[in-house]
Design a protein that fits this description.
- The chain contains 12 helices and 9 strands.
- It is an alpha/beta fold and 267 residues long.
- The chain has a single domain, classed as Aldolase class I (TIM Barrel).
- α2 links the parallel β1 and β2.
- α2 packs parallel to α4, α6 runs parallel beside α7 and α10 runs parallel beside α12.
- It is globular and about 45 Å long.
- The two termini are 29 Å apart.
Length: 267
């Protein structure tokens, strides 16, 4: 059975373009506001949505997402709200994954989390701090509920490591374009294209590049060599900078439209 995520990548490939993947944390500016923003991003051209599970110690995230997560947690966002966000976004016909550090999943119960994610219509889980060696319980639960486990590779990953990580993935492989924390940058890491080539030597799964893309021009540059372009901080910044929920919606919709044009111009 082809997952919704795999189908989205296949559709993009058939259109000779990269897929656009947008990230937003649940609960920003509110639970309902995050749902509206995620759907707006998809309506503007994103193929897949990642919903972030707010975590109290986001070590791998830069200042934009740290601030967003802080606001979401201060607003009372919990796992149940994240799952409700997934339910609403997936219910709108949008392939939806959760991106989360591993501790909240483990605390919630791995099997329970997988079951509730599948019940909400979610497609899978992106786990930046979970290694394949420690992922046995999650891989088993994901297989039981037909969820896509997505792991990260980085420019520092050895070829042996890339082979191990990609073998554990389903849906796509998340390629971090640079070392360090998340955040929009003036340019995407120069090692990204080489990393994508290295990953493709180990798997036929789509390879999506994230960390750093902030505008349509950068999206086009990444789309020229990757199967997917992941954008998070730049979208989140539009919500943080908005003076009203309506302004935030307009901001993410405009940026998503620009990014969608970019991935279509990149090949």
């Amino acid at each position: 059975m082809v997952s919704a995520v795999s189908a989205a990548f296949e559709k993009a490939a058939a259109e000779q373009r990269a897929a656009l993947i947008g990230y937003l944390p649940a609960g920003l500016p509110s639970v309902d506001g995050a749902i509206e923003a995620a759907i707006a991003i998809a309506e503007a051209g994103a193929d897949i949505i990642e919903i972030g599970l707010p975590y109290s110690d986001p070590l791998m995230d830069g200042p934009v997402i740290q601030e967003a997560v802080h606001r979401a947690l201060t607003g009372g966002t919990r796992v149940a709200d994240v799952l409700e966000t997934v339910r609403a976004v997936a219910g709108a016909g949008i392939p939806t994954l959760i991106m989360t550090y591993w501790n909240p999943v483990e605390q919630h119960g791995v099997g329970r989390f997988a079951r509730e994610l599948a019940d909400a219509g979610g497609s899978g889980l992106i786990t930046p701090d979970l290694t394949p060696e420690e992922a046995g319980p999650w891989l088993a639960a994901a297989a039981s509920y037909d969820l896509d486990p997505v792991f990260l590779v980085a420019p520092s990953s050895s070829d042996e490591r890339i082979g191990l990580i990609t073998a554990a993935c389903r849906g796509f492989v998340y390629a971090a374009s640079l070392m360090g924390t998340t955040g929009a940058r003036e340019s995407v890491g120069s090692e990204a294209e080489g990393l994508v080539r290295r990953v493709r030597a180990h798997t036929s799964l789509p390879v999506a590049v994230g960390l750093g893309v902030r505008d349509g021009k950068q999206a086009a540059a990444v789309a020229a060599f990757a199967d997917g372009v992941i954008v998070g901080s730049a979208l989140v910044q539009r919500l943080l900078a908005a003076d009203s929920p309506a302004g935030g919606l307009a901001g993410v919709r405009a940026l998503a439209s620009e990014l969608a044009s970019g991935v279509r111009a990149g090949r």
